[in-house]
Fold this sequence. Notes:
The structure is a single chain. The chain is α+β, with helices and mostly antiparallel strands. The protein contains six helices and 13 strands. It has helices spanning 28-34, 42-49, 96-111, 126-132, 219-233, 247-256; strands at 8-9, 19-22, 55-61, 67-76, 79-87, 115-120, 136-148, 166-171, 195-202, 205-208, 237-243, 259-260, 266-272.
Amino acid sequence: MAAEADVAPLPTPRTGGLTARRLHDGEVDAALRICPFDDVDADVVRRELAAGADYCWMGLFTPDGTLAAVHRAMRWHRHLLLKGVFVDDGFRGSGAALGAAFAIRDWAREAGYEGVTAWVEPNKPEARLAGRLRLRTAGPLLHRYLVRLPHASAAERPTGTPPRTSGTLVVPGGDEAAPMVRELLGVPRGPSAGTRLAWVLDRSRLVLSGNPCRSMADLGGLLAAVEDTAVSVGATAAEVVVEAADIPAALAMAGLGARRLSRSPVALGLVSFAGAEPSDTPVHPAATEPRTP
């Protein structure tokens, strides 16, 4: 983790001398004060702060050390998934949101990621921020659903050795029909049959990079395929995507009690860094203590 002295002024004049660096353990309460995430408490933040380069909580600070904005992100295969920027009320309109986004993007490049990605609601103000980051949509408009896993009532977060926080898994199945949502991150196919998906642990859910089901009748098979991974990391739900235009799938999800995570459709926005290393190259070991932009 970067030392407190390892900071650099942001190039955007409107930020008024704010500096950017990753948060440390002593700033958990300050982060939670301005981050209204559901199901994110101090334990979640500390776990992510301790995960090296797999998660990043980027903060913007005033010269006297006041936290003005926070941007949270996590490893999703070879890209850094941006999960939300929050600005203290006193700094709204200052350019702090853009400054935090640029800082976390530049950190991702330096840490060895191939690019950054985010869920973008095209009709929301946040879409302008995605445009400034040059995110380009990959795939159709989607709805994201939180589906409770069958083992959820008995799941317990593992103790002892910290569990993995991201990786890939294979969902068995043939290729006789098109998937409901193709794999979105370009994860290479493995030698075995089936679809390889990227996953990342976001709080108590597994975020999946596609939906290989041929119809909603296959959802049980998808949940069964992710169960071992979910149990190993303490996840109790899976985040499953379906096309926004698929009304029968939406009705089926509602019938299952799945929770839709946004009112309007989203698209996956993605930008890859020029000259990024090939996807089979490990992220730099030094990325656990990267220099901030």
